[in-house]
Amino acid sequence: MKMILCFSLIILSFSFLNSQDMEQVRMLSKEVKILNLLNGIELSKKQKATIKSSINEIKEIEENFEREIVEKTELFEVGLEKSIEILSDGKELPPSLGKDISTYSHSLKEMMREKEEEIFEVARGVESILGPQQVYQLENFIPCLIPPPGESRVGQAGSSEIIVRHLEKIRNIPDDVFMSNEEYLIDRIIKKEKEHLPILAEFDEDAERQRLEQLLNKVRNMSDIDFALNKEKLAEEFKGEKHEKNSKNGTLLKIRRYLLDPIVLKYI
Hints:
Blueprint lengths: L1 H14 L3 H23 L3 H44 L6 H34 L3 H8 L19 H13 L3 H21 L9 H17 L2 H16 L2 H4 L1 H13 L9
Helix pairs in contact: 3-4, 4-11, 6-9, 7-8
């Protein structure tokens, strides 16, 4: 009851926050996560100097991108405004306008992709100066506000163990409660998955939704003995086929999002 009350109060408090307040909360939350990482990864002076230089290099890349993209964005906006005007009258778009919009869209995506590749190249440079233990910590770093007791301050290591605990909880949910909340549960899982995707990565949400639905029902329908014998395997299955394939990119993404965030300059 106390847990439900606390959760309700948290939700209620967030409902009174405006968008500016929410952005401030988001930034403060990210700063806490970054500090958890920095406090656990123990950077040397040389590594800190490289990271500082890399953050400034990324700033320059992003500033150049902003300058270059202005003209193309303006052309794209004009094309979209023309499309809205034509479509609102119930008319079909001229083929030339449709082609222009497609060209602008593709061009913007390519520019964004090129920018991110430049930034990831900087992240690769940072990864190359990290020791094996530091890389291992990044691989197992799960951004969290409060690391659980007994875990390294760098975050929640042992993601398979965490997934097993969640699967156990899912098994214990009464059938009627699970059935009425299954879609919501899958929505939450997919939202978390999207948060950890590389920028501009493709994601088939319908296929993933179907995979999760089948897996959750499989977990719930297993006998206690079968689940106990296969829970580690189920946890790996839950991560999906792309987990191991993207583990390297996942580490670079963490370097990009957390170790090379401008907030880091306040603390190194």
